[in-house]
Amino acid sequence: MIRFEKQNYIYKIYTWLPIIVLFVSVLNEFDLNYLNIDYFSFNFPFILIFYFTLKEYNKFDYLLVFATGLINDTVIGLPLGISSLSYILVCIFASYLRNITIRPHLIKDWFYFLFVISLINSINYSILFLFFSYDLDIMFYIINNLLTFLLYIPSSFFLNYYIKAIND
Amino acid sequence: MASSRDDFIIAIRSAFLKKSTKQKFSLLTLAFLSILIIILSGINFKPINKIKILINEIVYRSSFIVSIPENLIVNSYFGIKRYSNFFKDYKDNKKELENLKSKNISSKIIISENDELKNLIEDYTLSTNKILAKVIVDHKSSFLRSIIINKGSSEGIEIGTNIYDKNYLVGRIIEVNYKSSRVLLLSDLNSNLPISITPGSVQAIVVGSGKNSGKIKYIKDNLIGDIEDQSIAYTSGTGAIFKSGIPVGKIINDKNKFLIDFFSDFDQLKYVFVEIKNKKEANNQTKTESNNLRNKAISTTELIKLDLLNDQVKILDESNSRFIRENQLLKSTIDELNNKIFVSQGEAEDKKKKTIQNDIDKKELEFLKLNLIYSSKCLRTVFKKGYKVGTPEYKECILRKGKKSND
Fold first, then answer.
1. Cβ separation A100–B59 shorter than 8 A
2. Which of B13, B54, B188, B200 would be a feasible disulfide site paired with B226, CB 3.0-4.6 Å?
3. Do B189 and A137 touch (CB under 8 A)?
4. Which residue in chain B has the smallest CA separation from A56?
5. CA–CA distance, B61 with B73 (Å, rounded to integer)
6. Is the separation of the CB atoms in B248 and B196 below 8 Å?
7. CATH of B127-277 given 2.102.10.10, 2.40.10.340, 3.90.550.10, 3.40.50.10320
8. Complex ipTM, two decimals?
9. Do A144 and B11 touch (CB under 8 A)?
């Protein structure tokens, strides 16, 4: 198990790692588009935000989440504020789940995550389609939604290790 | 029942309003802020647009830097893949190059012919300048297909500027910042491109499918039969968004569904060409030139008019003086002729007189001749009754040849 000295410089970076990864993921888009697999895409920021809000990780600042949303809009080319709203909504739903849950369960969280991302993607699609007249392929949204949902379990498995390392 | 509702409200309140440890803003505040930004960017609120441009400039550069490791891995992977196929590719390329060389000559002829024809129909021929731009961000989202290039308004790029990969069209600019721009690729769902399909010259519109191919839409049913598999599609220029005659892709017949396979591979774009139109400058130039020309033309016309008037005056003066001269000449001729007439009249008078005198002389001569013969008959002598010489009776008697009058 990795152990850090609490005042270590590397430790500080390590504690900020989720937010750094979030920034890198919105700037770099981990969409593996070069694999040229049709409809293959997932929303890694959703997984990160949901997971760390649920865990109430203290370095995971909502303002920074909001900022990553703005960056994501800029990189993808969406109207400013769409992704910020999506990310904040993920935070709200995750925060609500955290408040109502006494004994957390991964499978319950997982299906709740599916409900949350489906709802948020629907809102996203509706805003872009109705207010900004974007032509969007709903199939992309559905597959993105499903892949994000499926990737939550392996991602949370790795992220649990990270949290454990911090707590230890 | 009441307690569960209370729990729900408490949970909602804590989720929305309660600021967790070290959180500076509540989630509700941030949600409202997001909605406000969406509304303001939706109505094109100027400060938001300026902030957006600023964020764009910073984010695009940051994204480029952040993407370096990933791009390095991806490029290395593709590099290795390319090396493994190097010799085969070399052979294929050599063959293709020979074919292209022969085609290049014919296309050059076609281009020159096209220019001539354009000039004939007085179509505009824009002087364009293609500049090389680097693709700094190529994160195709699942929903939108766009790239970011490192050239912006400082290089003269504007919304709608055409983007090329070699000579193939790849898209157009939809967002311009000072040092960067966003290119909407032809494969994007929001991209509509008017094309002309040859052979057959069928007009259609290509809509992006989100993949590396496009769907052909808005085509008349009776024209579908004219489209052949592997036909070439190029821009028709309808709508004046894209220039005409730019190759776009090949037609693929997929179970009676026509798709277009773009010539350019949008996933492999590293450098693109941006077509900077000099139309504006040309327009300004043309405007000033046309103004100058117009002024010149106006002044020239006036000058020509003046010249014409002066010429007319000159001609009138000349003709006037000629008339005067002719008049004088005629006058003198008349005078001369009058003199001649007078002289002739005098001569005629003289001749008349002479003729009369001649007649008289003739008569006298006749009389004298007859007098010599018949004087004995008419002369009064002592023995003969006649007339005294010199009297009219004597003359008459002579002229009667001595015969007596009947009276």
1. no
2. B200
3. yes
4. B20
5. 19
6. no
7. 2.40.10.340
8. 0.82
9. no
